[in-house]
Amino acid sequence: MIRGLIGALLGAEIDRRDGQGGLKGAAIGLVASRVITRLGPIGLALGGAYVAKKAYDRHKAKGRIV
Fold first, then answer.
1. Which superkingdom, per the lineage (predicted)?
2. How far is CA 20 from CA 14, 37, 49, 63, 64, in A?
3. Domain boundaries, the chain
């Protein structure tokens, strides 16, 4: 379950660069989740850290950091 969540968030973050969204982000998330699980706990930690950093940077840019 965690793999699916991290894969979905990772695909959304990667696909957010071009601003179109859709099937491309879902495919990237699917592939990324498979790669992350093959790396084991380290892969899950790296994927989660990537998503967390992108979310932190986005909130920092909007001036919402408390």
1. Bacteria
2. 11, 27, 24, 25, 25
3. 2-62
| CA dist., res. 60 & res. 41, Å (int) | 28
Distance CA 17, CA 48 (A): 18
| pTM of structure | 0.56
CA atoms of 44 and 47, how far apart (whole Å): 5
HSE-up (13 A, CA, CB side) for residue 25: 16
Cα angle, residue 38 at apex, residues 49 and 25 outer, rounded to 5°: 60
How many CB atoms sit inside 10 A of residue 54's CB? 16
Which tens digit of pLDDT belongs to each residue from 9-50?
777 777 776 666 667 777 777 787 788 778 888 887 887 888
